[in-house]
Amino acid sequence: MDAKIGSLDVSKPPCNDVGSLPHNGTVSTSLISSEWTLGRHLARRLVQIGATDVFSVPGDFNLTLLDHLIAEPGLTLVGCCNELNAGYAADGFARSRGVGACVVTFTVGGLSVINAVAGAYSENLPVICIVGGPNSNDYGTNRILHHTIGLPDFTQEMRCFQTVTCYQAVVNDLDHAHEQIDTAISTALKESKPVYISISCNLPAIPHPTFSREPVPFSISPRPDCRIDNDHQRRPFLKINKKSHIVLVAIRLSNHMGLEAAVEVAAEFLNKAVKPVLVGGPKLRVANACGAFVELADACGYALATMPSAKGLVPEHHPHFIGTYWGAVSTAFCAEIVESADAYLFAGPIFNDYSSVGYSLLLKKEKAIIVQPDRVVIANGPAFGCVLMKDFLSALAKRLKHNKTAYENYHRIFVPEGHPFKCEPNEALRVNVLFQHIQKMLSGDTAVIAETGDSWFNCQKLKLPEGCGYEFQMQYGSIGWSVGATLGYAQAAKDKRVIACIGDGSFQVTAQDVSTMLRCGQRTIIFLINNGGYTIEVEIHDGPYNVIKNWNYTGLVDAIHNGEGKCWTTKVRFEEELIEAIAMATGEKKDCLCFIEVIVHKDDTSKELLEWGSRVSAANSRPPNPQ
C-alpha cells in the first residue's frame, strides 16, 4: 500500500493472540456486551469512590468519554467555564467528600488545569485528573496533532504532571486500561495526592472483556514501605463516606515495636513536663487522625491549639481550646502559652515561611515532639518511622498523666476580646465590623471558604461552632482558588450553606464560575470585599501593580445571572446596609445564590496582616549569603 501524506493508515490487521503484536486495543466484540466499555467502568469507579460530581470542560479529545460519564446514573457532570476552575472545584469537592475528579482535554486543557492540581498536591487532596488524549493510532507515529506545541511527541503534558501527581497513566490500549485506571485511582486514595489519567479519545466506547463485571470494591493492601512484625496495628485509613458513596476500605499498618517505643519515649518526655501543650497541624486530615487527636486532648487535659492551616480540623468548642497558634499573629494569648510551654506536641505540622510568619516562631526543637502521618520525632533525640499518627496519638492518650497547667495559665491571663466600635450612621463600613456580623451567621449548617488575602486573617479569628466547615489554601496560596473551591465544596456538601469571603483582586482571576454555581442551583453567600487591589501584596511590598481596575461586581454577576436561576445581588457601604443584606440573604433569599459586594477603604486591613506582611517581607528581602 502506498504511503500518503496526511492519510490514515487503516491497514493494520487485528490480532488477539497472547504474545503477539499489539492490536491497538480492538478485539472481537461478538461475545461482548456493548455496555462493557472503558467509559462505563471509569464512570462507575468514580461513583464508587465518592466522586459523584465530576467537573469538566469539553474538548474534542474528551467528548466520547463525557458521553459515558453523563450516562452513568449516579454521576453528575458539572460543566465549568475554564479548566482552572474545574480543577479548583475538584479540590473543593475533595475537601468535603474525601476525593474529587475533573475531566479536560489534551494539553490545552491539561496545562490549564495543572495549577489547580499542583494546589491539591500541596494540600494532600486526592484529585483524579482525567484528560482526553489523542487517538491510540497516533502514538508512535510522526504525526503532529492540534492542541500540542507542534512536535510529534505526546508526552509533554504527562511529563509536566509528573511533579504534581503521585501517579500517571497514559491509557492508549484496552488490554491494560482496566489495570491502569484502577491502579491510578487506588494510588490517589492511598497517597492522598492527585493522579493523572490520559485516555485516548477512540477508546471509551469500545467494549472489552476486562470490563465485563461490575467494578469490584477496592480493598487496598497495606503500603509496602515498612517492615511489619506479626503483632501489627491495623487501622482503616479511609472511612466509609457518610453518604455511603465510598465502599472502599484501605488498611495502613504501624510497626508495633516502633509504635511501642515511640509512645514510651514520648510519654516519659511529656509526663515530666510542667506545662505541656498540644498543637494540631494540617496533616491531621491526610493522616485521618482528627478523632485520635481529640481523644488525646480529652485524656491529657493539655491546652489545645491549632495551626492556621488546620483551622476546621480541631474542634474549637473543645473545653481546653485556646485558639490559633501563628507566631506573632496568633489569636490573643495563644502564642504566649504555646511558646512558654516546656513541651509541645505538634501533630501534622507544616512549617513554611507563611505559617512561621517569616521564620519568626519562638519554638525550640528540644522541647518539641513532631508527629507526622507516618513518623514521630522527639526533641533532639530519637525518631521512629513506620508509626502512623492515628495509632500513636491513640496509644499515647492511654499513657499520659492529666495536666491542666498550661490551660489554667491561659485561663488566668485571658482577657475577653473587645468588640469593634459600632459604625455611626452613614459611616464607611469597616472590615472588623463586617466579620463581627459574619460571626453571627455561623452554625453547624454553614461552612466558610476563605480566599488568599486578608480574609485569611479575618476568617482565622472566627469562632467555629460545632459542625461548621472551614477551608482555605495556605500552603499553595493561589489567588482565585476560592471561586472554584466554593463551587466544588457546595456541590459536595449540599446540607451546608457556604459562606465565601473573597477579595476583589482574587475574584477577578476566576469570577466566571459564579455562572456554574447558578446552573447547579447553589445557595452560597459570597462576600466580595472590594478594597481596590491586592491588599495582601501591598502589605508585603507595595507598588502600582497592586492597584486593579474596579469592576461593577454586582452588575457583572447580574449579567452572568441573565434571568436564569436564583440569584440576588447588592452593594453595601454602611453597617445598616450590611445588616439588611444579611437579613435578606438568610431570610427571603435563603434559597438563592447571594452576592454581597462590601465596599471598604483600601487601607482597611486586619492588624494581623500588617504584622505578618512586614515579617514575610523581611524574610523575602534577606540579602544573599556571603560566598
Mean pLDDT, to the nearest integer, reads 89
**Shape label:** globular
Provide the number of structural domains.
3
Low-confidence stretches: 10-31, 222-250
* C-alpha-based Rg, rounded: 26 Å
Roughly how many Å apart are the termini? 66 Å
| Secondary-structure content class | alpha/beta
Annotated CATH architecture of the largest domain: 3-Layer(aba) Sandwich
Bin the helical content.
25-40%
Number of helices: 20
| CATH class descriptor of the largest domain | Alpha Beta
Largest sheet: 7 strands, mixed
Strand content: 15-25%
Overview in brief:
With 627 residues, this protein is of the alpha/beta class.
Could you characterize what this model shows?
- Keywords: Decarboxylase, Lyase, Magnesium, Metal-binding, Thiamine pyrophosphate.
- One of its GO terms (biological process) is aromatic amino acid family catabolic process to alcohol via Ehrlich pathway.
- Its cofactor is Mg(2+); thiamine diphosphate; a metal cation.
- This protein has 627 residues and is an alpha/beta fold.
- The chain folds into 3 domains: 38-211, Thiamin diphosphate (ThDP)-binding fold, Pyr/PP domains (Rossmann fold); 256-413, TPP-binding domain (Rossmann fold); 431-613, Thiamin diphosphate (ThDP)-binding fold, Pyr/PP domains (Rossmann fold, 3-Layer(aba) Sandwich).
- Helix content is 33%, strand content 17%.
- The strands form 4 sheets. A 7-stranded mixed sheet has the order 12-11-10-13-14-15-16, with helices on both faces. A 6-stranded parallel sheet has the order 2-1-3-4-6-5, sandwiched between helices.
- Helix 6 links the parallel strand 5 (168-171) and strand 6 (195-200).
- Helix 1 (38-49) packs parallel to helix 6 (177-191), helix 3 runs parallel beside helix 4 and helix 12 (431-441) packs parallel to helix 19 (575-586).
- The model is unreliable at 10-31 and 222-250 (pLDDT under 50).
